[in-house]
């Protein structure tokens, strides 16, 4: 496992992070979830990502239990706030009330005294940004949070947040966007704004919701038990990956398989390694429903792809790559 600094901060993170969106508290039992965490620790993953909304708060509980016996100072534990976690009118958003209450609840579920990176899960247009960032700054000064980040914010939102963070002397260090060989909407605007603000990226969905795993074969039925088979047609899945669940796109993805084999990688490893080629990326979040998936995907850490490989990837996928910055968030 290789390690990188997160943005311009002094915080070191593992190039591969383990996330538990969809899996813990939902798709896999608690024993398997713990086995995935243990596998991650064995191969040197120190950065763990979750959110209060994942599996209706169960994901945080499962992760907290799995990490309970681990020396707290040896890991970086990250979670998020914004999406609804209850039925009350204040059980959502980035108001001071919700941030303070959500943070305390996350600390209890995670069985920890502090959060390393606390993310605004989305931008909240219904709350003044000053209110949001002052609440974050207070959590930092209380010692409950070490650093602040944002997820799926536009360049303009990041710039506004960075200005406030500087005024409040708050450690604003991270952006968590979706990023993959197929989804590159951050490159034109978000990356420059983040670099200017000193933010590092901890990216999610390097496999484009499984499209870049190679398991979906063109002109064949979707594999039984796969996420696409379970969720194809659902609005949320369609928004993330349904655009690519077509034979022509899947055919292009299959052309990447021999490219990966040529350099001794699987297609998922190539997809993760591609994201890590970019210096503005500090870490890539992988998910896992089995420990074996952790052990395989972690092999992408430290891989260097030469220009020829990168050019061939672009040539194969070019027609299907999404680059429109307006689709951020």
Quickly give the CATH architecture: Alpha-Beta Barrel
How does the major sheet shape up?
8 strands, parallel, barrel
Helix proportion range: 25-40%
Distance between the termini: 30 Å
The overall strand count is 10
- What is the C-alpha radius of gyration, as a whole number of Å? 19 Å
Overall mean pLDDT stands at 94
Number of helices: 13
CATH fold category name: TIM Barrel
Sheet/helix structural class: alpha/beta
The figure for the number of domains is 1
How is this structure best described in words?
- The protein has 329 residues and is of the alpha/beta class.
- The protein has helices at 30-42, 58-66, 96-110, 129-142, 155-168, 190-197, 227-231, 235-240, 247-254, 256-262, 267-276, 291-297, 307-317, and strands at residues 3-5, 12-14, 16-19, 47-49, 76-81, 115-120, 145-151, 172-176, 200-203, 281-286.
- The chain has a single domain (3-210, 268-304), classed as TIM Barrel.
- The strands form 2 sheets. An 8-stranded parallel beta barrel has the order 3-4-5-6-7-8-9-10, surrounded by 5 helices. Strands 1-2 form a two-stranded antiparallel ribbon.
- Helix 3 packs parallel to helix 4 and helix 5 (155-168) runs parallel beside helix 6.
- The radius of gyration is 19 Å and the shape is globular.
- The mean pLDDT is 94.
Quick gist of this model?
This protein has a single domain (3-210, 268-304), classed as Alpha-Beta Barrel (TIM Barrel). 39% of the residues lie in helices and 14% in strands.
């Amino acid at each position: 496992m290789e390690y990188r600094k997160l943005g311009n901060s002094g915080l070191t993170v593992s190039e591969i992070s383990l996330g538990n969106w969809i899996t813990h508290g939902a798709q896999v039992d608690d024993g398997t979830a713990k086995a995935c965490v243990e596998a991650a620790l064995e191969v040197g993953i120190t950065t763990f990502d979750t959110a209060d909304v994942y599996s209706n708060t169960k994901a945080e509980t499962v992760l907290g239990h799995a990490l309970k016996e681990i020396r707290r100072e040896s890991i970086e534990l990250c979670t998020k706030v914004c999406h609804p976690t209850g039925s009350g009118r204040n059980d959502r958003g980035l108001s001071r009330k919700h941030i303070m209450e959500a943070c305390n609840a996350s600390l209890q579920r995670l069985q920890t005294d502090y959060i390393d990176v606390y993310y605004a899960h989305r931008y909240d247009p219904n709350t003044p940004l000053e209110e949001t960032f002052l609440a974050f700054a207070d959590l930092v000064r209380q010692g409950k949070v070490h650093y602040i980040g944002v997820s799926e914010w536009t360049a303009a939102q990041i710039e506004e947040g960075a200005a406030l963070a500087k005024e409040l002397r708050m450690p604003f260090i991270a952006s968590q966007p979706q990023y993959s060989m197929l989804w590159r909407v951050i490159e034109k605007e978000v990356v420059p704004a983040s670099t200017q603000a000193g933010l590092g990226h901890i990216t999610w969905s390097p496999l484009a919701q499984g499209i870049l795993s190679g398991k979906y074969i063109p002109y064949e039925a979707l594999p039984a038990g796969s996420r696409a088979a379970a969720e194809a047609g659902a609005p949320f899945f369609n928004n993330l990956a349904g655009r690519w669940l077509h034979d022509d796109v899947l055919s292009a993805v299959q052309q990447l398989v021999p490219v990966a084999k040529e350099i001794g990688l699987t297609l998922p490893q190539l997809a993760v390694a591609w994201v890590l080629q970019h210096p503005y990326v500090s870490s890539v979040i992988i998910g896992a429903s089995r420990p074996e998936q952790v052990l395989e995907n972690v092999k992408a850490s430290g891989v260097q792809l030469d220009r020829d490989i990168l050019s061939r990837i672009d040539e194969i996928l070019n027609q299907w790559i999404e680059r429109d910055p307006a689709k951020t968030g």
